[in-house]
Amino acid sequence: xxxxxxxxxxxxxxxxxxxxxxxxxxTSLPDDSERLREKIAGSCASFASDATAHGPENYFFVLEDLxxxxxxxxxxxxxxxxxxxxxxxxxxxxxxxxxxxxxxxxGVPALSLCHDLNDHTLLRGFHxxxxxxxxxxxxLLSRARLLFIAAHAQRFADAVITEIVGYSDANxxxxxxxxxxxxxxxxxxxxxxxxxxxxSRAFLAELFPQYPIYVPMLPQAAQDCIGxxxxxxxxxxxxxxxxxxxxxxYIDLFDAGPTLYARTTNIHSIVRSQIAPVQQQPHxxxxxxxxxxxxxLQGFRAIVAELDYQPDQPLSLTPAMCAALNVTNGSPIRLxxx
Length: 338
Prior knowledge:
Elements: E1 2-6, H1 12-21, H2 33-48, E2 58-65, E3 70-78, E4 89-99, E5 104-114, E6 121-128, H3 136-151, E7 159-163, H4 175-179, H5 181-185, H6 189-198, H7 202-205, E8 213-214, H8 220-223, H9 234-242, E9 246-251, E10 258-263, H10 268-271, E11 274-280, E12 288-293, E13 301-307, E14 315-317, H11 319-325, E15 332-337
Parallel strand pairs: 6-7, 11-14
Antiparallel strand pairs: 1-2, 1-13, 2-3, 3-6, 4-5, 4-9, 5-8, 7-10, 9-10, 11-15, 12-13, 12-15
Helix pairs in contact: 1-2, 3-9
């Protein structure tokens, strides 16, 4: 059985292997033991905190195969993007110029460095084992974070964002980075992303041009990258799009990947999830597949299970399911259909 749970200090070695395997552009998962150790410690402190509002907390989850105690994925929630330093992105909007004498009005798309997305909750760090891509466990790894937000709404903002990794080729070259960022840093795309993961994007963003960049002045290959998703990032995008997230006018400043946005009142797993008390049963006549979680904080856990759920009735779970979720008879369970 696979269970999503909160990260622990003993996960460091396996977590670093996940970092090595993760997609370039997932900068919140650096392949560095000291940085990962700090992230784990910070996450443990966040789960232990008594926060009553969204602040600097970072909640780190891992997906564990209980049969062999192997980590097969991870994901995160940063309660407040831009809390400690500006959260930079590029705003892609039209700049309009006009001439009364010539009776001409013309709009040109332009990219402007900004930190408009400060103060939003940020989903990040999504990575899953290649063998589990496009399975219900990808849904578990991504959407269980939303059930956690539903259970602890006071810890998060009213709007949630996530950056989807933009296009780069098999050799790690990003046409967008080569056309723009490389001129200001003299670094390859992969190295820039690595530095961002090791430190922060702020010191890199501060070297970006402070004036609008007119999109038609970029090479066509770079223009084609704006809002384009890396093939390996498509599943992360699709899951959240089905949840009600939408693209907006913001893109990543390194690879031009799209940013997804949703208010919590429009996110399906938050507003449509149900709560039912547990009733332990030795066997279940399964009729549908569901995503389940307890509503704990430090002991938060979530699984995918085949159930026979009847609204307004106790939820029948097997002993194995109860053990995975760390619940007993009468415990509240949050669930939503897959």
